[in-house]
Amino acid sequence: MLEIKHLSGGYGQLKVLSDINFTVADGTMTALVGLNGSGKSTTINHVIGLLAPKTGEILLNGVALQTDPVAYKRQIAYIPEQPVLYEELTLREHLEVTMKAYTLDRDVAWARAEQLLTIFRLTNKLEWFPTHFSKGMRQKVMIVMAFITDAPLFIIDEPFLGLDVVAVRDLLHLIDERKATGTSFLLTTHVIDTVEAHADHFVYLKDGVVDQQGAVADFARLVPELVEEG
Ligand SMILES: Nc1ncnc2c1ncn2[C@@H]1O[C@H](COP(=O)(O)OP(=O)(O)OP(=O)(O)O)[C@@H](O)[C@H]1O
């Protein structure tokens, strides 16, 4: 379970977030929504440990980032909005680096990788370098790297922007499968429609504070300003 308690934070002297409180329970998905600049990415940056809280704390299965950064970070699989790949490593090497970083059993992880590579049509591209991948393919590589881990928390930043419809459907299917095994998901999105059927809770950020949060079923009632008319 991810617990965010009274988090205030931001960049250097710039305070962006004030007194953020929410939890993501095991086997559930929380959608973090809000307009441009509302603080979604800043919240994620705090949860993955890129930024340190000014006040408050973030606990992942009881472990605080400040107390044990390695144990904390190993529990997170992060898929950023902009894929971050090593230009000098092949796809195969990216998968191997991930297996080492998360101390995965190689046989189990490769069996998983093969299934994922098939789903995302990357099987014959193991020796390719990132420069040869399209934007969507780079994103798929990040998805494969995340889903070979056993991380109890997945954080996915704007997952649907560069993916084709087939890949979106496949990603949502993978998310549902993992959720059923107890994995938690924190996802940022501008379009709640895509995740509505898959998310359990939403947190609506407005100018760096939680304006509303609750069950996804109540989203339209609680946040009418983000629901398209028609
Ligand atoms: N690296 C940074 N340094 C300083 N300020 C930043 C930085 N990144 C974001 N900000 C500021 O923090 C505030 C929140 O931005 P953030 O990126 O968290 O919003 P967001 O909800 O993710 O927006 P978007 O939907 O556009 O991605 C904005 O006012 C932004 O200008």
TrEMBL record:
Name of protein: ABC-2 type transport system ATP-binding protein
Tagged with keyword NADP: no
SMART domains: AAA
Record field: transmembrane: none
Gene Ontology molecular functions: ATP binding; ATP hydrolysis activity
UniProt entry keywords in alphabetical sequence: ATP-binding, Nucleotide-binding, Transport
